[in-house]
Amino acid sequence: MQYISFFESPVGRLYLTANENALTGVAFEQENGNSFPIDLKNLEFSDTHPVLTDTKLWLSLYFNGNIPDFLPNISLAGTEFRQQVWEIVKKIPYGQTMSYGEIAQIVAKKRGTRPSAQAVGGAVGNNPIAIIIPCHRVLAADKYIGGYSGGLENKRLLLDLEKVQYR
Question: Among the three residues 63, 96, 112, which one is the final residue of a domain in this structure?
Answer without folding.
Answer: 63
